Amino acid sequence: MHRFGIGLDIGSRKIKITRVKKKGAELEIVNFASRETPRGVMEAGAIIDPYVLGEVIAELVNELGLKNRPVISAVAGPQVYTRIISMPKLSMEEIRQAIKYEAAAFLPIPVEEAAMDIYPIREYRDGEGGKVELLYVAVRKSQVERLKTSCRLANLKLQTIELETLALSRLFHNPKEVEFMAFLNLGAFRPYFSIHRQGVMLFIRNFSFAYSGYPAGAALPGPDSDFSQYHFPGTERVINEIVNEIDRSCQYFRLQYGQGPDKILITGGGARIPGLDQAIAQRLHCQVKVAELLSRVKFPRQAEDKILWELNYDFAVATGLALGGIGSWELIRK
Questions:
Q1: Secondary structure class of 51 (helix, strand, coil)
Q2: Which of 86, 240, 272, 327 is the most buried (most CB within 10 A)?
Q3: What CA–CA distance (Å, rounded) separates 327 from 82?
Q4: CATH: 3.30.70.260, 3.40.190.10, 3.40.50.2000, 3.30.420.40. Which one for 3-78+141-322?
Q5: What is the pTM of this model?
Q6: Angle 256-254-108 (CA atoms, 0-180°, nearest 5)?
């Protein structure tokens, strides 16, 4: 039996949508498409103009024939608030009620303005009795409503909103092979670094830098590029800044969990910065790879190299979202 899913990834530079088919353990991309994100529509991962965004998404929906289909999308960037919390062991419904009062102490926005959810990490006991460790995640309700508006205008049925990094983990993380898996997603304006154990996110940090800081008009390598020619004056500075931030994040994580990540996957447009993976591996002494979507999923049709290149490096989040349904963060309650 075939199962299908649709993922919508709204980036600061590009809007991507993909439809994925799953049969057993095999994954296949049925079709995909993208459009440039219009100026003024997005800012730091937040939707500013849901109406123009809806028009652009509608173009993709019409191109791929996805009208009135269910879709999973994501939120990312500084608009997302996460925290690891320990609470007395209660029912999940009781915890959800109690967390609203707990969140008031640390959430930087009013609790009534936040759409939130929790996910259990582990259960344990201390001197006070049974406890549960949770990952708390929240986003402004206004962002959820704007995303729902855009999808409605595009004739899509928004099924679930989740975190980008969970989509990446679902797609690439095999807990049987790697216990602590990290993702460095280098989007144009909202990069982040996350660490997962057994498919559960334990840490996430948003960074202020972005590869958009490259010189104006400086394109990253393409399928026929000589990578040795892609060293702009700012390349070493960008690499050093990224490596330093990753190193600091891993040091903090080691203090909490006793070890750093076993493997780091680099995703997003900035993954093509030449020499970045080697620089991180040299500093952190762990396995670092640039994520390649086509090593995980099949695309059976013939296509030009530049199209396959875009699919391979730019559609990881959209594909991971399309695989959603298991372990998703339902910021929209059904």
A1: helix
A2: 272
A3: 16
A4: 3.30.420.40
A5: 0.87
A6: 50
